[in-house]
Every structure is written in structure tokens, then in C-alpha cells.
Amino acid sequence: MFKKILIANRGEIAVRVVKACREMGIHSVAVYSEADRASLHVRLADEAVPIGPPPAAESYLDMEKIVRAARRTGAEAIHPGYGFLAENAAFARVCAEAGLVFIGPTAAALELVGDKVRARQTMEKAGIPIIPGMKSAAASPAEFEKAARMLGYPVIVKASAGGGGKGMRIVEGEKDLRPALEAGMREAKSAFGDESVFLEKYIENPRHVEIQVLSDTLGRTIHLCERECSIQRRHQKIVEETPSTALDPPLRALMGETARRAMEAAGYINAGTVEFLLDRNRNFYFLEVNARLQVEHPVTELVTGVDLVRQQILVAAGERLEIEQEDVRQRGHALECRIYAEDPERNFLPSPGKIRVLREPGGPGVRFDSGIFEGWEVPIYYDPILAKLVVWAENRERACRRMAAALDETVILGIKTPLAFLRDVVTHEAFLAGRTDTGFLARHFEAWTARPADEPGLRLALAAAAYAETRAAARPDRGKAGQPAVEAATPWTSLGRWRNGGA
Amino acid sequence: MEFEYLVDGAVRKVAVEVKDGLVRFQEGETVFEAEILAVSDSELFLSVEGAGRRILLARDGDRRLVFHGGREYVLEAPGKAEGASFQGEDGGKEGGIVKAPMPGKVIKVLVAEGEPVRKNQTLLIVEAMKMENEIKAGRECVVRKVHVAAGDLVDAARPLIELE
Fold first, then answer.
1. Do A191 and A334 fall into the same domain?
2. Statement to judge: residues A185 and A279 lie in one domain
3. Residue A493 and residue B53: Cβ atoms within 8 Å?
4. Which domains does chain B have, with CATH numbers?
5. Whole-model pTM above 0.80?
6. How many domains is chain A partitioned into structurally?
7. Do A413 and B67 touch (CB under 8 A)?
């Protein structure tokens, strides 16, 4: 087993891997950009190495710096997390050349499944159902136009190298195609360093159902059942769950086996996910392989009891998976809500800034995978994910209640987050009834606003604020003891009869 | 002491007096008392008519942030309300200064000084957290001044473009 692992990532996923390493008795090495000097993953890792300026291209995407950091610290393996270099075949190759183990699939498998166009070809050949689309990225706008006409609008622009909604654009008609291509290519370039995009027929309002697969170097490939991730906004998943309400045991077995075969066809090793779209008639289409640990992996962990990061590390070290297909059982129900730095009342605009108060939820069946802490400034440079709230309960109804209660318990002040929005989602009648598809948010939550404040609640808030002001005003000596000085005099004071001479 | 807050466009005046572990609030004719059970810089535990109320507090410049009962309340300073500028998709609704809807980086400036713009025309693109945000003109007008160029880091307070 490895003695030391470098984690080529940041935020909550880097923290997740640090924790897995600690449990396994493996030393962890964090890397960080100048914007992340005080970040949580840096604080928690055993060692931390600076790798450059804030833009990802000059730090978290700089392979050479990361490999150098691994060599200097004596790390034997690199865990890439998700995003950044996680699905980058060139990076896997650079690691191998430097004598480092890349914790993930081989460079060849990454090349195959990471290029969505080639992946589709491979899957088609292996008899896996696929969505109609372009066979390769086009060279000119005219070629794209021709392809779009052949597929029939609406079509969707996708980044060849991408995932997570980056670079994606739905195009309803020809006049919108060119701007969508340009924007998609720009986003793809900035997110993945590769601007190639392709077009696919757009299937309206399917469910997004994916299968978690694990395989080791000793020839075993198993699946750990499904996750449903239909609650999406701009193709970005925000609520995930397992089991899916749309699957019964035969369909689950069929999709699981199809995913397993797909991964075997790709020569895939380690943890990976096969994404499918499931239409109303229970037809499913291969969407893509996510050749990495996924953001939503915790729901699978809670329901199957398998620690996916641990399995990833074992497989990378050449060991055998600790679980066999016949041992995989789904027990109870798990839900995950992604907590981003964004404002649900202003079209989900990013909301970087300082976290002034943080209270994390807890209790039975509640897991909070977090990359944040109170007093930390959320930087503008990276993905807005702050934390993931994951709950487990005996059944779906109880899991939804537990999630609503845990969301209520979570407090993040100073930046905008979608906590109240998420609460409304998991308590919505259609969600509770399991009527989820990728059109769910557009249908039920367009122009969402927080419920209006009730007068007694507001009055208590005003009273508490005023009391806090008197406390701040009563501490004129605060700066002297070497503590941070009180921020400029309160802007809310007005002369009134309660004011007395001393204040 | 007496304090004024701006909430949803209305000024609210609250008087507060602390004595012997009790705090007395008054707003107009409404008066209520609470017992202070515990207090820190960011947390307040009050007993109001026998019921415990946990309240979290933070200050963000001129904004007081209060959280209790599963809900956040944003209390602003009177006279410093938002709405003095035009942000995001509402950019330039009544002419004037266009500011960034959030801190970020300017990716592209699509208009030049002196250029007439249509309603809903994209003026510039600001990126934050890997998302591109188009800032559009709220009405037909002319670009008076462009303060930023591609690559500039901007915060939510800095003027980006002036319209007339």
C-alpha cells in the first residue's frame, strides 16, 4: 500500500480524499494556488505544497508543477479528485512517466471514454444504446449547421472533453447555433483546456440515471447500482439520490449489467460512472462515462456501505476490490443536495465572498462533506461548490424529511447559498411523489423566490440585530487587547431616548 | 439605544435597553422583553415568552445578517440601499452606471465608447466561478464610458460601463 498520496485538487473533494487517506494510514499531500493558501484542504492535509497563481491553468491544471510537488514530497500516487486533471489522459501519462501512480483509469481508457465522440463509437460497437448525434467534432460552422439539420432541432452543444454542464448549450433553431457554439467553445476552453465541441439530438425531459462501476486490475468489474440526478439546472446536477424511483429490480439489473459491459468494452479500471438518459418508456441511452470519482458519490456510499475512495486507492495499489457483485445491496435511501456559492433569487449568479457564520448540520444519518469554514473567503476562480449535504434514512419519505430538517439546520451567512431553495425542492409535492425528470426545475421552480418574511420573525431579527449593535458599541477597548478592531461604528445608530451619555 | 434598519424598502426603528440579563425591545407601540440566556459574537440565545430562540448574527459592511427559524433576514443601513446602480441583466435600465452583478473577471467587452446600444444588447461578459454572465443593456442608449478591459478583475462595487 502507498505511504503517501498527493491530492491534485481543492475544496470538499480534496478534504474527502484527505480523510480517506488518514483512515488508511496514508500520509496526504495537498497542493494549493495562491488563492487557496488558507483553504480547508490545506489545513487538513499532512503536508501542503504551493503550485502557483490563482487561475487554474497556472496551478491546478499545471501538470508539471503537480508532478514536481509529488516528487519533492515523496508521494507515490496522485488522486485527482473530480474536475481539473481528473479525466486528463495526458496527465495520467505524465504521472506514469514520472513513476507515479495515477489513482484512476489508464491513460488509454481515459482517452477512449474521455473523448465523448470516440466513447459513443465504442459503445455503439459494443451494442450499448446511444443517442443520435455527430460522429466527430466538426471543423467548420457550416458542418455543424449541416449536422444540426440532419439531427433536427432542438440539438445540444457539448464539450468533447467536458462534464458538469460546462460548455453545454441547447439550441432551438439555426439562428442560435453559431453563438451557442462560440460560447460553448469558450467555456470548454476555460474549463478543460480543450475547445472542441460536438452536437447531439436533444431528448426532452428524460430522467438522468447513472450507474456506479468499480473494477480492479485482477479482472473484476462490478456495479454499485444507480443514482438518479434528474434535478438539474443548466445541466448542472443539484440534487441526487439513490435508489431511483423509476427503476424496478429488472430494469436496475439490465442497466447495471449494461454499464458493467460498457466499462469492460472500454478496458476501464478503477471507479467510474456510466451515465444514461432514461425516457418515459423505460428506454435508456448511453450518455457518457465519467472517468472519475463523482461529486454525488456519497449517496452510493451511504446506501451500499462501500467507501468508494478507499476502493479507488486499493485498486490503484494493485489490490483486489473488497466487494463482489453478489454482495452489493441497496439499503434504505440516500439524498444529496449540493450547496453552491450562488444566489437562487438572482438567477443563480455566483456569490463569492467571506463566510461570516457557518453552522453545519449533524445527527443520525446526516453527512456534510465540506470544503469551507467560518471566516474563509470563497475565491472567484473555481467551481462554486462549497459543500454537499447528504442524508440517509430507511426509506425515501424519511430521507426527504431528514434532508429538509438538515437544510434548516445549516447556516451560512455572508454569501448567498441555495439552502432555502433546496428545502423547497425536497419538500415539493412532485419531488415527494418521485415525479422527477430533467425538466423538473424549469417546470416547478422558474423564478423562485424565498417565502416572504413574517412580521413576528422579522421583529425578532430586528431586535436581535439591535442588541448586537449595543454589544458592539459597549466594547470601545476591543482593539487594545490585540484583537481585531471593531468594524467602523455601526451605521444603524440613530439618536433616540435610549441613548445614554456613556455610549 | 435606538437603531434604524432598512428592510424591503421600509425604515424600521428599534429601541433596545439591557438591564439585569433582560433585554427590552420597542418598535413604535410594540414592546417585548427577552431573557438573555447566552451570547457570543455570532450567536444569541434568547428566551422570549418562555420559548428559546437561537439567533445567528453577522455583519457584512453596512448589512446586518440575521438568521433564525430556518430563515435569513438581511437588514440594511438606511440611505445605503441597493438599487442605486444597475446590476446584471437589469444593467442600465435608467441609464447611468453599470456594475458587475458579482465579483469576477471581465472576459469580453462587446461595446465601445460612443456606440449606440439596443435594449437587451450584451455589453460585456463577466466570468466568476467558471460561469459566464452576460451583462445586458436595460434599454436603448449610448455608451458614454467603458472603464474595464478583458482580463480585469472586478468587484460588485466597481463601475464597468457608463451609459447615457
1. no
2. no
3. no
4. 2-76 (2.40.128), 86-163 (2.40.50.100)
5. yes
6. 3
7. yes
Mutation target to probe the A interface, by most A beta carbons within 10 A, among B16, B53, B54, B120 is B16
Q: Would you say residue A476 lies in a domain?
A: no
Residue A234 Cα, gap to closest chain B Cα (Å): 11
- Residues A194, A144, single domain; the answer is yes
Q: Complex ipTM, two decimals?
A: 0.84
- List chain A pLDDT tens, one digit each, 503 residues: 999 999 999 999 999 999 999 999 999 999 999 999 999 999 999 999 999 999 999 999 999 999 999 999 999 999 999 999 999 999 999 999 999 999 999 999 999 998 877 888 889 998 899 988 886 777 788 899 999 999 889 999 988 887 667 778 899 999 999 999 999 888 888 888 888 899 988 888 899 999 999 999 999 999 999 999 999 998 899 999 999 999 999 999 999 999 999 999 999 999 999 999 998 889 899 989 999 999 999 999 999 999 999 999 999 999 999 999 999 999 999 999 999 999 999 889 999 999 999 999 999 999 999 999 999 999 999 999 999 999 999 999 999 999 999 999 999 999 999 999 999 999 999 999 999 999 999 999 998 999 888 999 999 999 999 999 998 887 765 444 444 444 556 777 765 544 444 43
Which residue among the candidates A10, A207, A227, A292 is catalytic per the annotation? Answer: A292
Question: Is there a single domain that holds both residue A393 and residue A260?
Answer: yes
Is residue A140 located within the same domain as residue A283? no
Cβ pair B14, B26 in contact under 8 A = yes
The verdict on A227 and A370 lying in the same domain is: yes
Q: Are residues A93 and A44 in the same domain?
A: yes
Q: Which residues of A touch B77 (CB under 8 A)?
A: 491-492
- Residue A186 and residue A335 in one domain: no
User: Catalytic: A68?
Assistant: no
Selecting from A349, A465, A495 the residue whose C-beta is nearest the C-beta of B66 gives A465
Q: Which of A190, A238, A462 to mutate to test the interface with B (most CBs of B within 10 A)?
A: A462
- Is residue A170 within 8 A of residue A124, CB to CB? The reply is no
Q: Does a structural domain hold residue A123?
A: no
Contacts made by residues B12-19, CB under 8 angstroms, sequence distance 24+? B12/A462, B12/B75, B13/A494, B13/A496, B14/A462, B14/A463, B14/A465, B14/A466, B15/A466, B15/A496, B15/A497, B15/A498, B16/A463, B16/A466, B16/A467, B16/A469, B16/A470, B16/A498, B17/A498, B18/A467, B18/A470
Distance CA A147, CA A158 (A): 14
Set of chain B residues whose Cβ sits within 8 Å of the Cβ of A191: 130
Cell of A146: 449541416
Could you list the residue range(s) of the whole structural domain that residue A229 is in? 207-444
Spell out where A234-290 has E strands. 236-242, 270-278, 284-290
Which of B2, B15, B128 is facing A350, going by the closest CB pair? B128
